[in-house]
Design goal:
The chain is α+β, with helices and mostly antiparallel strands and 747 residues long. It has 22 helices and 24 strands.
Length: 747
């Protein structure tokens, strides 16, 4: 949740507080900016306390800027190069930008244009990219406090000297008065160039080493990718000490997949190794509170939410807005909190002061942050290079890796890794993880499939993790439309219409059948070898058919082999044809083949089609009822007016033979008597499903198969309801049909 969202419930004082403490910018993807310098030119401005210099530099515009009032009258913001400036020589290019873009805006005017109100949010949606709002401060003479010093003072929020009000309260009403006493606040707004945005980030990243727990040399000289300081003095390291990646040393959450979590004592004794799915979130609490999932699970389904932070866990009423607990009045917060627990599960009072928040306990710190804090502590004498681990070089000592940066490892995840894991499942036994496997190179000498890969396998590995840009753009457009609609409804103070409700409740986008983007899933063996895609894709295709027919699920034994990678992209046509041939070879070895796609079908496209063993073609909608050339928004179906929600049966020559509503199994196209039979079965509460040419009727409660029919409507014995055509009557969408047709070539 953004600072602006939090401000909505606070009123003007809360907004001012948040602006004083935030990073210093509120960025909107926005537009129609106000003028580059919103301050009006004062025709008869009184003499400033220190007259502005002549124009000619970015820091000294002609028009003086009033930012407040002093004892002697209006307070003018003095040019950065004005005589007598006590901060001379301490300004950066960011300070020059803040000065040049300072406004005459009052707090009330800020609320109207940039605040949390719906009008301001609508306005924000029209500002250009890079538009930011920055808070500045000046002393009684109008000399601006350098932004680096302002950021340093803001970081006192996390200093040891500042007493935390409670485990949930990160701010206090008098904080601005204490850290900016005697200074006057003003606002600067405009487009911040990328190089200045980077400078702003660097200035803000200056840290106070005293605000961190004492960092021993064994950790500070070789920090891992992430470090968590535990309140009991232990240290959790995500990844081995000294690990560096060439691309980026600050991994995002999903890039932590595959890294073990090492638990150390303060002296560096290795106490345990764990394989958490989300170690930098809340999973690490399982080490000290093994019953966390079961205890917190008691609150599931009750509309409650969980708030994690600094090693504390709170159960709150307002699941959609947990961070509001940090800024709303205590009485209101207490009404929203049902229970709070420490990192070890001990019930606690969430409103008792604690210094833990000010010392960065319970948060996953980046390796660069730990390294900078360690150097700062060395310089200030808070730690020593002598604080090496007495367990170094021993089996129970710190686990180090060489310091040479290396490419990120490729990790194949278990399809079931999203489930809630117990502590026992997170503990690594005999060095083997149940949740992920390291993918080995295709040319690894011990790879049993080393000689069986095609060019598509290497292409797929290069495309690993790629997302469909059309889907990404459509989701972003959807999010933006919903945000703008909510703001408009709030401005107009009315409820959403039925159509607007559909827009607000619409999440996700449908894949366009004509979108050439393809998504692939690569299977990986437990040893870390990629199974050649021609082999795994055909096996998966046939396995899906048999599993669906039997109504079976993957067992525990299958889970050990459920490692996979996702890939996506536009595979070159020639490579696609070669892959098709390799898949066809795999099918022929099993006595099977892909269906032959006739030219008349592609000349009159349909949304999807299936192929019967006798050469018939079954379509969803009549021939020509799908137009892949229509220009529609992404995700919309391209059905023509002739689409009729029916199954149509065509002979091998394209002659239509029968048509039935799609609510009935396709096998009824060959046995019309089944229409009444399936109608009676549905009326009695029975369910049916069709796959691979077989239609099974099941009891809705027991899921027991009571009847079975072959592709042509012939009854099948219940003890073996399979046919010899695993790919028969399987539905292929338009894009799949097109790829097969192009790969098959002319007759």
């Amino acid at each position: 949740m953004s600072w602006i969202t939090m401000s909505i419930r606070l009123g003007l004082p809360g907004v001012i507080l948040l602006l004083s403490l935030c990073l210093g910018q509120l960025t909107s993807a926005a537009a129609q900016p106000a003028s580059a310098d919103p301050a009006p030119v004062l025709a008869a401005a009184p003499e400033p306390l220190s007259p502005p210099l002549d124009a000619g530099t970015e820091s000294s515009p002609l028009a003086p800027k009033i930012i407040g009032a002093s004892e002697s009258g209006p307070l003018y913001l003095q040019p950065l190069d004005a005589p007598g400036n006590p901060y001379a020589g301490k300004y950066s290019e960011l300070d020059a930008w803040v000065y040049a873009n300072a406004t005459l805006m009052s707090d009330e005017e800020y609320i109207a244009q940039y605040g949390p109100g719906p009008e301001a949010r609508v306005l924000a949606s029209t500002r250009p990219e890079g538009w930011v709002l920055e808070v500045g401060y000046a002393d009684e003479q109008g000399f601006m406090l350098p932004m680096a010093e302002q950021y340093r003072r803001r970081q006192q929020v996390f200093s040891r000297e500042r007493p935390a009000d409670s485990i949930l309260f990160r701010m206090t009403p008098d904080l601005p008065d204490r850290i900016f006493a005697g200074l006057h606040k003003f606002y600067s707004a405009g487009v911040l160039a990328p190089q200045l945005a980077q400078l702003q980030k660097e200035l803000w990243s200056q840290i106070d080493p005293a605000s961190y727990p004492t960092i021993p040399a064994w950790l500070g000289e070789n920090p891992p990718l992430r470090t968590i300081f535990v309140p009991n003095g232990e240290i959790l390291c995500i990844g081995p000490l000294g690990l560096r990646y060439t691309e980026d040393e600050t991994p995002r959450f999903y890039e932590n997949q595959g890294l073990l979590t090492y638990r150390y004592s303060g002296e560096g004794q290795l106490l345990g190794t764990y394989d958490f799915a989300r170690p930098e979130a809340a999973d690490w609490l399982l080490i000290y509170w093994p019953e966390m999932n079961s205890e917190l699970g008691k609150y599931q389904g009750t509309g409650l939410g969980r708030h994690f932070g600094f090693g504390f866990v709170s159960i709150i009423k307002d699941e959609s807005d947990p961070l509001m607990l940090g800024v709303v009045p205590p009485d209101q917060s207490k009404r929203n909190i049902l229970a709070s627990f420490d990192y070890d599960g001990t019930p606690i009072d969430p409103f008792q002061p604690t210094p833990r928040m000010a010392q960065h306990y319970g948060t996953a710190l980046q390796s660069s942050t730990v390294a900078r804090a360690y150097q700062g502590q060395l310089e200030s004498g808070l730690t020593s290079r002598d604080s090496q681990s007495p367990f170094a070089g021993k089996p129970n000592g710190p686990v180090l890796t060489d310091s040479a940066p290396r490419p990120r490892p490729l990790i194949a995840g278990d399809r079931y890794s999203g489930r809630s894991l117990s502590l026992e499942e997170c503990t690594v036994h005999d060095g083997r993880s149940k949740r992920w496997v390291l993918v080995l190179p295709l040319d690894d000498p011990s790879n049993p499939w080393r000689s069986k890969y095609g060019p598509w396998d290497r292409w797929l590995l290069d495309q690993q993790g790629q997302s469909n840009p059309a889907v990404t753009a459509a989701l972003e457009k959807q999010r933006r439309q919903q945000s703008e609609l909510r703001a408009r409804l709030a401005t107009e103070k009315r409820e959403a219409s039925a159509d607007e409700q559909r827009v607000l409740s619409d999440y996700g986008v449908r894949m366009d059948l004509s979108d050439p983007w393809q998504r692939f899933e690569l299977q990986v063996s437990p040893e870390g070898y990629v199974i050649p895609y021609a082999i795994s894709s055909v096996a998966e295709l046939l396995e899906d058919a048999s599993r669906e027919l039997l109504g079976s699920q993957r067992g525990e034994q299958d889970r050990a082999y459920s490692f996979s990678l996702s890939a996506g992209g536009l595979m070159p046509a020639d490579m696609q044809a070669l892959l098709y041939e390799a898949q066809q070879d795999q099918l022929e070895a099993k006595g099977l083949a892909f269906p032959r796609v006739p030219a008349w079908l592609m000349e009159q496209p349909v949304e999807r089609a299936a192929f019967a063993p006798n050469g018939d073609v079954i379509t969803y909608g009549p021939l020509g009822s799908y137009n892949p050339d229509l220009t529609l928004e992404y995700g919309n179906q391209r059905r023509t007016e002739s689409f009729d929600e029916q199954y149509h049966r065509y002979g091998p020559d394209g002659q239509e033979l029968a048509a039935l509503p799609s609510a009935t199994p396709a096998c009824a196209l060959y046995n019309l008597a089944l229409l009444q039979r399936f109608s009676d079965l549905e009326a009695s509460g029975m369910h049916w499903n069709s796959f691979a040419g077989v239609t099974l009727v099941r009891d809705a409660q027991s899921r027991e198969v009571t009847e079975a029919y072959d592709w042509d409507g012939t009854p099948l014995p219940l003890d073996q309801p399979r046919c010899g055509h695993p790919l028969a009557m399987r539905w292929w969408d338009y894009n799949e049909l097109l790829r097969m047709y192009e790969a098959q070539g002319p007759d």
